[in-house]
Each structure stands twice: as C-alpha cells, then as structure tokens.
Design a protein that fits this description.
The chain has 521 residues and is α/β, with parallel strands linked by helices. It is built from 15 helices and 27 strands. The protein has a nine-stranded mixed sheet with strand order 2-1-11-10-12-13-14-15-16, sandwiched between helices. An eight-stranded mixed sheet has the order 7-6-5-3-4-8-9-19, with helices on both faces. Helix 1 crosses helix 2 and helix 10 (259-267) crosses helix 11 (291-301). The radius of gyration is 23 Å and the shape is globular. The relative contact order is 0.10.
Length: 521
C-alpha cells in the first residue's frame, strides 16, 4: 500500500479519512470509532481549541494514560495548527509543573487518575487557561465529552507547513531538567517514508497500541497504525496478561514493545497457552535486550521481529534490523541493524573525524528525522546538532557488513525499561537531602529492565540514614522509575583532578563479564 509522500501529517490524515471512512480506526475498552468519526471528533477538538483562543503554535498538553481520546486530541491539534505536549504521567508533581510551565502550555487535558496532581499544582501554572477532564467526573474542570461534542464538526481548514512543530516530547535533562524536543511535520513525514515498504503493515489489520503516548515510540506507533489504515486496539497501560488475551481474542497482527515488555510476556504463566498464530510481526527497541530473550520470544511468538534504534531527537527509529538478521547463526543479534532509507550514519572520534570499521566512537546521524531543536534551549540545540549531524551520545561501531553495534554510552544516561534517566537529575534529588553530603548514580544490570539505577552516597558521621530512607525520599522528589533501586554508602566518590565523578569506576564492577547493549529510545 502506497502512502502519499512529501505530505504533511495533517494532509496524510485527511487522505486516510477520505480513503476509508467506514473502517474501524480504533477500539478502546468498549468504544469503537470509525475513521469517519475520528475525523469528526478531531475536527470538534480543533474548533474547540480555536474557540479557546489557541493560536497557531500554541502548546496543548495531554497528561493522562493511553486512550482513544489521546489520539483524537493529537489529530485535533494538527487540524488547529497547535502543538501537542505529551506529559509523562509517571513524573512527580514538581516535574509535571516544570514541563507544563516550560512548554508554556495553554490548555491541559488531564486523566482522572491525575486530577489530584493538577489540584495540587494548578496555582503554579500561570499559562494554563483551561483544564479539560478527559474522563469526566470533576467538579473543577470541564468535562471532555461535553466540551468536545458542543463544538462545530466541520474541518477548520487550516494548513500547516513542513517545518511547523506538531509534537513536543520531553527527554530527561543532563543538568537536572528535561528538555522539550520539537518534532515537525517534516520529521514525521520522513518517519513514514522510512518505514513504508519495510515494516509490513496491512490496511484493515489489527494493530496493538500499548506503549505510552508521551513517548515517541507510542506516538509513532499510533500514527503509523492510523495512516496505514489499521484497526488499532489501544490499552491504557502495560498489562502482560491483558496483552496476551488481546493477541488471541482480537487477532492482533502487529505491535511494538520495549524489551522489558517482551520479557514480561514470554515469562507470563499464560504465554505457553496463548494462540499467537495471528501475530505477523513485532517491532522492538528502546533499551537493552538479552540474546536469550530474543531467541525465546521467537520460539514462543513465532512471528517476525524487527529491531530499531533511535532517539526522541531523531523521531524514533533511524536503524532497523530485519527478521532474517535475527538468525543467531548470523551473529547479528547484538546489532541494531542498518540505517533506514534517507538516514546517514557515522561513527566519529572526539574531534568529529570518521572512524574506520570496528573502531568505537560516537554515533551521529543526519536526516530529515532530526528534531528541529530543543524548545527554548538554543545552546543545547547547537551542542547536539552540528552541521546537520545529530550527536547521539551513544558509542558504537560498524562491522564489515555495515551493521551498527551500540557498545556503550558516551554520556552517562541510563536506559531502564525504555525510559531515559540522566544521573544528574537523580543526583540533584539525592543531594537535596540535608544529610547527604555527596551522591552519584549509575546503571547496573537488571534482568527485567535492562538497567536499574544504583546510588552511591556519602553521609555525615552522625547521620542515621538507611537505604530505605533515601529511596523513599527520592520518590517524593522525582518519578519512581528514576529513583535508585539500591543504595551503597561510601566514604568518598571517585573523582578526576577536575572534580568530575568517575562513574565508570563505580559502574564497571557490576558489568564485568556482561555485555552492555543499547537499543536507543
């Protein structure tokens, strides 16, 4: 099936709505919506945002778990020329406040589970004009369905340009605050072009959307599912038992999982009794994965596997490893494949010089997939994108056949279950405790999550802090997934002459004899 090329995402959705208005676009719980009705609902949301005086390029935040309404809102922002800001619902209240203020979001859609968080921080959000309760039941905020269904259902007729922002996702910050990644029409059009004809979506087939919408993987997967005309089964959160049930009952043909989810699925007691015969392919990536997990997944699921590597800043995937490359005898399981069409990849040294085959250096990429930049952070943008090349912070090498292998990270980022965690952010949270004198965190091996966060802390002689005390304290400061899972008390952190923490000295003993493998995010 050929999707039109060189079109904005807005134009591509219009093409899809006109092509198959009677096909089912998505199902969430007991709600099914056709492409024709999705077109109508997104028109209503677009007109509703315009009536709230949201101008082109205004930011509209969505803070809730996956649902059909998330994608209605996403398409509604496309049609109103506004920008969806995906808010990670796993963040702690101070982090949510930061994202909403940094993005200057004017309208906030919020899920029922998170009404109390917004109640707590609303006074800190001067830019928010309107809060809309996605699941209803709030006395303080507008009811989503009542608001949506009171709007004009005609297309507002606004057109967007290729360089217009359409999505802003936040990635953890090296200095303690996350950065807003600006993704444009051009970025998503390039993403569609890169996977068409490579990843075998089928019009009318059933596609499972389970990764969170605040993550580029979840948003991409949903967009692709719609543009290829799939019947998209959306679930609110990762539930391995439910996923196995849906694969069988809904005859799922395709899905995207991070490695941790694959491990949960194949380890589930119902896995051996699940009928996977409908499953055509699974795409995976975003964190480390063990060879044994891949091999067992192929044995149990009996479907094609595609691995991808990329980052939020590259609109997701920039490489792909095809199903044939998953044959263990080929020796490519530790690779993340080759560059997708339209993507240039290099491995360079610290001066930016190309390295020869087999030499480890920083992975950089150049394509229309590279973000416009970090929102209101020109210095960070200029550091990350040089002459059109995005510096990933990942260290890797090419083999003789041109396959990319990710060896380690140039930066100290930890990837746990597909989520990026920057040590500086966690260390800042730990250091805010008045009894902690010094702190460092590193990623250590974790069978479920690929890596987990381990903290090293220095406390005063008179302190009675225990491991549980520190972990509990950190959970009040930052999202739980970023918090240390274990703490080691040490007298002094290893530092170089300039005072920089030597995290490798802390990390290496835990990785001795274990290969680190990163699939990107």
């Amino acid at each position: 099936m050929n999707i039109p090329r060189n079109k904005t995402i807005q134009e591509l959705f219009e093409w899809r709505f006109n092509k198959t208005p009677d096909l089912v676009a998505h199902k969430f719980q007991d709600r099914e919506t056709t492409y024709g009705n999705l077109d109508k609902y997104s028109n209503q949301i677009a007109n509703g945002l315009i009536s709230l005086n949201c101008k082109p390029d205004s930011r509209v935040a969505y803070y809730g778990k996956n649902s059909d309404h998330f994608f209605e809102c996403l398409i509604g922002t496309l049609k109103s020329n506004t920008v969806t800001v995906g808010v990670n619902w796993r963040l702690a209240p101070p982090e949510v406040s930061y994202v909403l203020n940094d993005s200057q979001s004017e309208v906030l859609f919020v899920g029922e589970e998170f009404y109390p968080v917004i109640d707590q921080i609303l006074d800190e959000l001067p830019n928010i004009k309107t809060v809309i309760a996605i699941d209803g039941g709030s006395e303080k905020y507008q009811d989503f369905l009542s608001w949506r269904d009171s709007q004009d259902s005609s297309n507002p007729g606004l057109k967007s340009k290729k360089d217009d922002d359409i999505l802003q996702l936040y990635t953890s910050g090296t200095t303690g605050h996350p950065k807003g990644v600006q993704l444009t029409n051009k970025n998503f059009s390039a993403a569609n072009d890169s996977i068409e004809g490579v990843v075998p979506f089928e019009e009318g087939s059933t596609n499972l959307v389970c990764m969170p919408g605040y993550h580029v993987a979840g948003t991409n997967w949903g967009i692709w599912g719609y543009l290829f005309g799939c019947r998209n089964i959306i679930i609110a959160d990762i539930d391995p038992g439910l996923i196995l049930e849906l694969i069988e009952s809904e005859k799922i043909r395709s899905s995207l999982f991070v490695p941790a989810v694959i491990l949960f699925l194949i380890s589930h007691p119902n896995a051996q009794n699940t009928d996977f015969s409908s499953l055509n392919f699974v795409l995976y990536g975003a964190s480390p994965i063990a060879d044994d997990t891949i091999i067992k997944a192929m044995e149990i699921m009996k479907c094609d596997l595609f691995q991808v590597y990329g980052l939020t800043e590259t609109t997701g995937a920039i490489t792909i490893m095809m199903p044939d490359d998953h044959d263990p005898s080929k020796g490519k399981l530790r690779s993340c494949g080759k560059a997708l069409d339209g993507v240039e990849l290099k491995v360079v040294d610290e001066e930016g010089n190309d390295l020869e085959t087999g030499k480890i250096g920083e992975v950089i990429s150049k394509s229309d997939l590279n973000m416009k930049g970090y929102w209101n952070k020109p210095e960070a943008t200029n550091e990350s994108i040089v002459d059109g090349w995005f510096y990933s912070g990942d260290a890797g090498f090419f083999d003789q056949e041109g396959y990319l292998f990710i060896h380690d990270r140039v930066k100290d980022m930890i990837v746990s279950g597909g989520e990026n965690i920057y040590p500086a952010e966690v260390e800042n949270a730990l250091m805010s405790h008045n009894e902690i004198l010094d702190a460092a965190v590193v990623g250590v091996p974790d069978e479920k999550w690929g890596e987990s966060v381990k903290g090293f802390v220095v406390i005063g002689e008179n302190s009675s802090l225990k491991e549980d005390d520190i972990i509990s304290y950190s959970r009040a400061q930052i999202a739980a997934y970023k918090c240390p899972k274990s703490i080691e008390f040490i007298k002094e952190l290893p530092r170089n002459p300039s005072g920089k923490i030597l995290r490798r000295e802390l990390r290496d003993p835990y990785w001795e004899g274990i290969d680190r493998k990163v699939s990107g995010n």
